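[#protein-structures] MJ: dropping DNA-binding response regulator here for a structure pass
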Amino acid sequence: MSAIRVGLVDDQQLVRAGFRLVIDSQPDLEVVLEAGDGAQAVQALTAGTAQASVLGPVDVVLMDVRMPNLDGLAATEKIVAAGTPEHPAPRIIVLTTFDIDEYVLAAIRAGASGFLLKDTPPEDMLDAIRTVHRGDAVIAPSSTRRLLEHLVTALPAEQQTAAAGADALATLTDREREVLVLMARGRSNTEIGEDLFVAEATVKTHVGRILAKLGARDRVQAVVVAYETGLVVPGA
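AK: finished. structure tokens for DNA-binding response regulator:
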């Protein structure tokens, strides 16, 4: 199998060098792009540009938030919006710290497939890249779940009203709602299966139906709906 092609977007060259060293040490991962700001990333990763055509597909991008010229949030939105069935956008993992909480949730809404704290251990970062490449989202670690809860409670109350999300939530079966609650609590498919006494394959089927009914790109966006609609209460 070909290696997972990774892009690094961060304005600190030393940070990119450290990430590259860790990622390129893995036989199944390869860094194929580095960019120092969001504008460079958009130019390189937007389908149809000359640079993107030469570069070829990038599977997963690690995207910093605070960068000059164009920040990671705007870059994420532009890159995801430019994806097409023929040239799908790369999956994006936002790199962040607790002091920029509201921006991270905005990135998730823009289409990012997850986020990592910048002090995440290298092995967790590598696992996150592989997880996102498989089509899942990076929300499982307890620290990430706490961060997501922190993000939702930090939003103004009027931003938490989601009538469309509530309507979609009403289409879920009781079992699908149970699975969504466990997803929001950071449980993996294996753990959900153990909690509900069902096979992991059954859980995957439920997750797929939940994403389809909620119109969610991945697990992160489904979990955001769970919090916004009040199905899951932060801290509960």
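MJ: nice. The CA atoms of residues 98 and 147 lie 7 Å apart.
AK: one more thing. The beta strands are 4-9, 29-35, 60-64, 91-96, 114-117.
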